[in-house]
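To make the argument concrete, we let one protein speak, a sequence paired with a row of structure tokens, as a model reads it:
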Amino acid sequence: MKVSFHQFNPKKFSFRKDPVLVLENFWTEKEMEIFREAMTHSTWTGLLDMPAVSRAFPDSGNWLKAEMGPKERQLFLDKMSLPSIMEYVESFPNIRQRHVNFNFYSYGAGDCLPTHDDTDEAYANRDRPPPLRRLALATYVHSEWNTDWGGELIIYHARKDSRGNRVLEVAQCIAPEPGSLALFAVPRFHRVCRVDALAGEHKRLSIAGWFMTEHDT
């Protein structure tokens, strides 16, 4: 489903029926300014300084990641308290703990994220089984974005061909429109298209991560 946030009824939407939700105009200009201001004071880490992640996603440029501060994190989580999110997360049995993991991201010209389904734990901490990712999220807080600048979120539909091989077909191409929000059930193959050189110094600024659950074994 793709709809303006002002027309969205979160009590009627279900991720069980529609696994991908795109909300336009989710953030106000003031809210986006708060996030952008916080980003100017953030401590960023480049992909090339995260060896395990860069091995999992080679040739992906050098996009940046930063932790959210407590004020911005609270603003973010308060607005994410949608009934449809909670209903889906709580629909899984034997939940022991609930987790969220959201960070700031900055993609510049040449940066991308190859196709994956958010279940590859090649760079996870192996000391204990990681929480299970249930809903993935990406939301955009840059002030402007041109269609020639790339950076689209591509979501795929997976099927089997006549030989049993997996085939990925584009299901949705989601432009990183300022203030928009994309949520989708995991696992689901997706990628971030490379930001074009035409973007110049403009950065694709986002908040992304997961709602997760941990279960009794």
Q: What stands out?
A: The helical segments are 29-40, 51-56, 70-79, 83-89. The longest helix spans residues 29-40. The mean pLDDT is 95. The CA atoms of residues 44 and 66 lie 5 Å apart.
